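Lab meeting, action items carried over

1. Structure of the two-component assembly. Owner: GW. Status: complete.
Input record:
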Amino acid sequence: MAEKKEKSTEKGLSEKKENFSEWYSQIIERAEIVDTRLEMKGFIVVRPWGTLIIEKMYDFYEEELQKKNHKPVIMPSVISEANLKKESDHVQGFTPEVFWLKTEKGEDKLALRPTSETLFTPMFKLWIRSHRDLPLKLYQRGSVFRLDTKATRPLIRGREFQWIESHNAFATKKQAENQVQEDIGITETIMHQKFGIPFLPLKRPTWDKFAGAEYTIGSDVIMPDGKLIQQPSTHLMGQKFSKAFDAKFKDEKGNEDYLWTTAYGPAISRILVSVISTHGDDKGLVLPFCISPIQIIIVPIYTKENKEKIIAYAKRIKNKFKKYRVEIDERDFYTPGWKFNEWELKGVPFRIEIGEKELKKDNLTLFLRDDRKKELLSLRNINKLDKYFEEFDNRLKKNAEKILKNSIINCKTKEEIKKVIKEGKIAKTNFCSIEKEGIKCAEYVEKEINADIRGILATKKEISSGNCVICNKPAKEIVYIGRSY
Amino acid sequence: MAEKKEKSTEKGLSEKKENFSEWYSQIIERAEIVDTRLEMKGFIVVRPWGTLIIEKMYDFYEEELQKKNHKPVIMPSVISEANLKKESDHVQGFTPEVFWLKTEKGEDKLALRPTSETLFTPMFKLWIRSHRDLPLKLYQRGSVFRLDTKATRPLIRGREFQWIESHNAFATKKQAENQVQEDIGITETIMHQKFGIPFLPLKRPTWDKFAGAEYTIGSDVIMPDGKLIQQPSTHLMGQKFSKAFDAKFKDEKGNEDYLWTTAYGPAISRILVSVISTHGDDKGLVLPFCISPIQIIIVPIYTKENKEKIIAYAKRIKNKFKKYRVEIDERDFYTPGWKFNEWELKGVPFRIEIGEKELKKDNLTLFLRDDRKKELLSLRNINKLDKYFEEFDNRLKKNAEKILKNSIINCKTKEEIKKVIKEGKIAKTNFCSIEKEGIKCAEYVEKEINADIRGILATKKEISSGNCVICNKPAKEIVYIGRSY
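Predicted assembly:
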């Protein structure tokens, strides 16, 4: 591995601003996030550094879901053909993308799960009898599989990806809709507040909702090339799946009704795409402190003569940070400069350099990955660092928020939208409707402007005034338009 | 769910001693560990209670693996036909059991991974160049898939199961063999010392090793019916896979050699079988304190009048156990007696009962799940409980150790072995050889005694004296014979 890394950092990364796509392809391989060399279309290996980040991200999401009273389950990775095909819209949406398994003769046909509504709903039918069993809020972590025939890209679009699926059942529509809002809140608490990735919670146009849902709310995140990537989406399934599976409950008065269900799906491997793309720079990854597998890397600078002393000093410093993930890079066969590059490439938020100079005066040199500033600190003031650590993630978040905010441009004409989209930004504009009647205007936007109607803000009603910029009929909504992944 | 549970506990469980098989089938459904009603042969749903236990078990194993310098990766769930078929012994062993996927025309055939040697070894080839990159110790958590055509049983034998796979590469055979011993140590530290499941680490006869391994060491655990179940096994692959995949490294002197590899596979869902079967009793599960999703359940006994006071008191007690997983069962629609049964069935180690009587004198009634003793304690002496919690797991472990120890019977004749096996015990005896030349004697044991040669102790050399009990030729080994799952 040594040889390879040296070559990479020597060669340098593409510039993120100049050629984001190339930068992304390079950084995920060089920072050892993934390896695509198994050569199976849409299937990748996530390497230890990437896996450790993903594990931390899972931890944050699972903790939050459990705090909100969701319980974990482990569903099979397969679905019987009979169940998969029970809800008709769902079938149409997903069947073309399904991997089928060859089973034994005489056995039911099995599909690898592309999503798990048709596993959870039959269990709801079995587990829920009365209002006492409600709400039932579950989730699972694991892979799903989609036989995507389009071009795949590592972590962005794959045939297998790692996510969490939360499926929930309620007694009333109101409770189910509250869950949808709570899900947006989880995205806000974790993806935005923890990982520093701001998003637009957008109710999707009816032609763009999840196959089988009453409505879908996606979380749109802006990428450095100006395109939007869909992050966790949450769906009101209403009674569509419960009717297909005949999943009912008895209310307080003994009356039967179909369950109201919702689903929420943070794709952890995809959120990692936004973490990499939003915070990274031309030197490599910049990982939020809260999810970096190593939060502080100590690079001791020593000779054969003073090695023992310096390493002892490094260990003393490490011991002062017991609540953090700290490592000392003691590898003799790499130079300090090589190690600096390596850990910058991998995005470790803080580096502590210590050599003879620092040791003599009980000092340490602190390097901050994001603004790449160095500072000489006394060991006596080491408590000061707790504040630095906190500020680090806050700084990443504020920068990302500024980018998103500056990318949203109010537009009053088609020409303005065209210009905004060309500049890699998001157009906000009056639009006739995200229901069926708006589909023609959406098609115009797709063909003529090469962009999509992404939807309307789901957390706050934005009141439209004036007419649709496309068809000039009265505008029912204010929509966000952008190019998308 | 309410109705169902009430019926179950009324009906009562089968007696574990009388009919273990039925007891097992009942308890895994009634304690809400699994649900098999999706009706796909070999695929089950693990319910929240079961999943929470499995998650805790994963945590223990992953922490220990990371402590021993293993790093996690996420491998694809699929393997290309070309890679799967590279190692010839491996192909023969696994190909009949593989689920094949239907992919797009012109694309490579893909198999669902039955085990992941053929995913890890090609990556070793790419990631390892020199001795500097060694050892490389990795693991992944996830599912594997086997198209088992035999009778499947929930958690014991399934077509999909949850495990950890650790794959490791070394520069020398000695280092690889040390890893195999370290793996046995991990089974000891976690499965035995934490979960209270003692085992026999047995080097398997050559006809019973993993397909592609030089040798296999299994961990045999005794079940209440006297049969042995194989728990984590570890394999010296030697250079078989590295040769098949041409995975080499350069040593200090610049000479090339093939990697030495090992694999270790704790199947978490299967270890749960032993936890359930070993510790459970006629009232339900008995979960080790360290993995129980709820460690202490507080059941408040109240009327409408004093509910507020009693619940407040329950919360005061809960606050005293912040480092433990404690819950208060506040559900109005169940009686205290129903709740007692419910939490005993689910195996919660400690129950605290509080009512008017306890409240008045700042007392609590403590119920211990394993010996079902009750004790009145003063809130002032609550610190005493830390010791109780520790002793609980120790007690489960000691009981299990006694059972295993008493089950191993030294045998000097075929007749003795027959008798021991009939009694549901393990025969320890002189045997000619676990290499090829012993296969005829093994076949005799299988046919005439309906039992298997499970292997020889792998952690300590037991010296044989005398002749093989079967063929009467000089005995090279002392083997353990038992019936098996």
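2. GW to write a short summary for the group page. Key points so far: The radius of gyration of chain A is 25 Å. Chain A touches chain B through 61 residues (CB under 8 Å).
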